Amino acid sequence: MSASKTHFRTCNLCEAMCGIAIKVEDGVITSIKGDEDDSFSRGHICPKAIALKDLYEDPDRIRRPLHKVDGEWQELSWDDALDKVAARIASLQAEHGNDAMGVYLGNPNVHNTGSILMSGGLLRALKTKNKFSATSVDQLPHHIVCWKMFGHQLRIPVPDIDNTDHFLMFGANPLASNGSIMSVADVKQRLKDVRKRGKLVVVDPR
Ligand code: SF4
After folding, report:
1. β-strands 19-25, 4-10 pairing
2. How many angstroms separate the CA atoms of 114 and 103, rounded?
3. What is the mean pLDDT of the chain?
4. In the chain, which residues have pLDDT < 50?
5. Which residues does 204 contact at the CB level (< 8 Å), separation at least 6?
6. How many domains does the chain have?
7. Residue 114 lies in a domain
8. What pLDDT sits at residue 1?
9. Ligand 1 center to residue 139 CA distance, Å?
């Protein structure tokens, strides 16, 4: 008899945070669909979430730490890997200064509880000024405006799209970003609803 189970989860690939239903039979993912009962995303799903199965099962996915020995990749334990990395960071910083380390934090860090809790401590311990992220690539001006207008870089006004009658949008394409920080699953339908209620105006310098 096959063991079948559906796991209800949040897609962690972007800020839209769509609810997804992952069906598993005998330990194998057989389907990933939008969760119709998710009050936020209302069943919406995009191709990226469906492809989570491919990511999960990719035979080339790295599941254990690897290091190269004589040109060949070999597995090593997490303890050995962390010791190796720590020793190398310490020797590089001793030789070239703390700023010899550059750090880049990708978007998925904000969708991972462990990373959210621990990355601040790690960054402080590294004492490097060379810290980069999706933020430093594309949204620091936004943070500076919020800091100057509202007193903190994270006081970012978010439109209440489901209750907006006149939506004035500057240089953004939520169809591509799903609203980014606005976090709007199924933004296409929600923008259509704005147009039904009132007006959508896009000012795009490009
Ligand atoms: S829009 Fe796509 S990638 Fe973003 S949370 Fe929803 S399903 Fe995931």
Report:
1. antiparallel
2. 17
3. 91
4. none
5. 170, 171, 172, 173
6. 3
7. no
8. 61
9. 20
User: Cβ of 161: how many Cβ atoms within 10 Å?
Assistant: 17
Place of tokens 């491919």: 54
CA-only gyration radius of the chain, Å = 22
Task: Check pocket membership of 16 for ligand 1, CB cut-off 6 A.
Answer: yes
pLDDT in tens, 158-182: 889 999 999 999 888 888 777 777 8
**91 is in which domain, residue-wise?**
62-67+75-101
pLDDT tens digits, residue range 10-40? 998 888 889 999 999 999 999 999 999 998 8
Give the pLDDT score at 14. 83
E-strand spans in 28-139?
Answer: 28-34, 66-69, 72-75, 103-105, 131-133
Cα of 49 from ligand 1 centre, angstroms: 6
Q: Is residue 106 part of a domain?
A: no
